[in-house]
Specification:
Elements: H1 2-17, H2 24-27, E1 30-32, E2 35-37, E3 49-53, E4 56-60, E5 68-72, E6 78-81, E7 95-100, E8 106-111, E9 115-124, E10 127-136, E11 144-149, E12 155-159, E13 169-172, E14 178-182, E15 204-208, E16 211-215, E17 221-227, E18 233-240, E19 246-249, E20 252-255, E21 264-269, E22 273-278, E23 291-296, E24 301-306, E25 313-316, E26 322-328, E27 332-338, H3 339-342
Parallel strand pairs: 1-24
Antiparallel strand pairs: 2-27, 3-4, 4-5, 5-6, 7-8, 8-9, 9-10, 11-12, 12-13, 13-14, 15-16, 16-17, 17-18, 19-20, 21-22, 22-23, 23-24, 25-26, 26-27
């Protein structure tokens, strides 16, 4: 009897994990919006993150790709760089862009060797320059897949290695001391799942003020949180838009390459909206980007827009009127979309 019960429990687990659920996400009308292509042919090998500040667009490359460049917002021309890959003071091994200061004079770069670098920047008469200011070493030796600075001076980190029972994020103070963990796991995980972070391969974080928004690349999941002045956490939403298709193999999560619909390449936010780069084709199989998806701050889908060029990274202009898109056409370039057109 116990063996029979165990069989049906296991069967039920796989049926749940392998269920492909229909979603309004797939049925939403795809609109067409005009865009502008700068045709600047940027000399970079890879773009991991974009940001906009000081009338500049920052393009950052993670891992072994060392280019972190500043591009003029008006015409997409490269006007400078910040940091470089090496092992001297202010030099990084594997940089992850972590944001800019409120007064726009500092760029934050998290190095995956476990340091946060601060670069002072100057922009005068369209001449961009930067210099290393100082670094911060976390009191605890910790590695983060993503780290972003909030308006209140705190940071939110997505750890590289955590147990399946742990929360998704870590809230850190201005010196990278751990304050608390938060965020619910987006899938029902067993305690013996060793490869918990498999869910967060290609996870993306963006911040707006003290709000944090997360998307996953492995499946269609989006979440939002807000940090209060007293460092409390408010969950705005946590939504699995389409159920992932996966199973456990020797305690590791394995996503079904044929059935699982992948999630998002990138995410950016304005005061009322969240912009994402959809990773999947209309047939549900994720191979290359094809549409932008726009959500409100409660995670409700507002619109879906066809991309005019292939590319994975996005950011929003300071006045929140333009969405910038780093594209391959065939070299790296920047396309811009009017946000008011995307919201019509």
């Amino acid at each position: 009897m116990n063996k029979l019960l165990s069989f049906f429990l296991i069967l039920g687990f796989y049926a749940c994990a392998d269920r492909q659920v229909n979603s309004p996400l797939l049925d939403a009308e795809v609109k067409t919006v005009e865009s502008r292509l700068y045709e600047s042919d940027l000399m970079i090998k890879y773009c991991d993150a974009m940001d906009c500040s000081n009338s500049c667009i920052y393009l950052s490359a993670a891992g072994l790709h060392q280019e972190n460049i500043a591009v003029r917002e008006t015409d997409g021309k490269e006007i400078g760089s910040f940091g470089r890959r090496d092992q001297g003071p202010g030099e990084y091994i594997a940089p992850i862009y972590a944001g800019h200061s409120e007064n726009k004079d500092t760029i934050y770069v998290w190095d995956m060797n476990g340091k946060l670098y601060l670069y002072s920047i100057q922009l005068q008469d369209s001449v961009f320059s930067s210099s290393f200011a100082y670094s911060i070493n976390p009191p605890e030796s910790k590695f983060y897949q993503r780290l972003m600075r909030l308006k209140n001076g705190c940071y939110v980190g997505l750890p590289l290695e955590e147990k399946a029972t742990d929360s998704v994020f870590v809230l850190l103070d201005s010196r990278l001391n751990k304050i608390k963990k938060f965020g619910r796991s987006p899938v029902e995980l067993k305690a013996d799942y060793r490869d918990f972070r498999k869910c967060f391969d290609n996870a993306r974080i963006t911040v707006y003020g003290n709000k944090i928004f997360l998307t996953l690349g492995s499946f269609a999941y989006i979440a939002g949180y807000e940090i209060t002045d007293s460092q409390g956490i408010t969950t705005l939403f946590e939504k699995t838009l389409i159920q992932p298709v996966y199973h456990s193999s020797d305690g590791y999560i394995v996503f079904d390459k044929e059935k699982n619909r992948e999630g998002f390449y990138d995410i950016a936010a304005t005061d009322k909206h969240i912009f994402t780069v959809d990773k999947s084709k209309p047939d549900g199989r994720g191979m290359e980007p094809g549409t932008f998806m726009v959500f409100d701050h409660q995670g409700n889908l507002i619109s879906r827009i066809k991309m005019n060029h292939e590319g994975a990274r996005i950011c929003v202009s300071e006045d929140e009127k333009t969405l910038y898109h780093c594209v391959r056409d065939p070299n790296f370039d920047i396309a811009s979309y009017k946000i008011e057109d995307m919201l019509k």
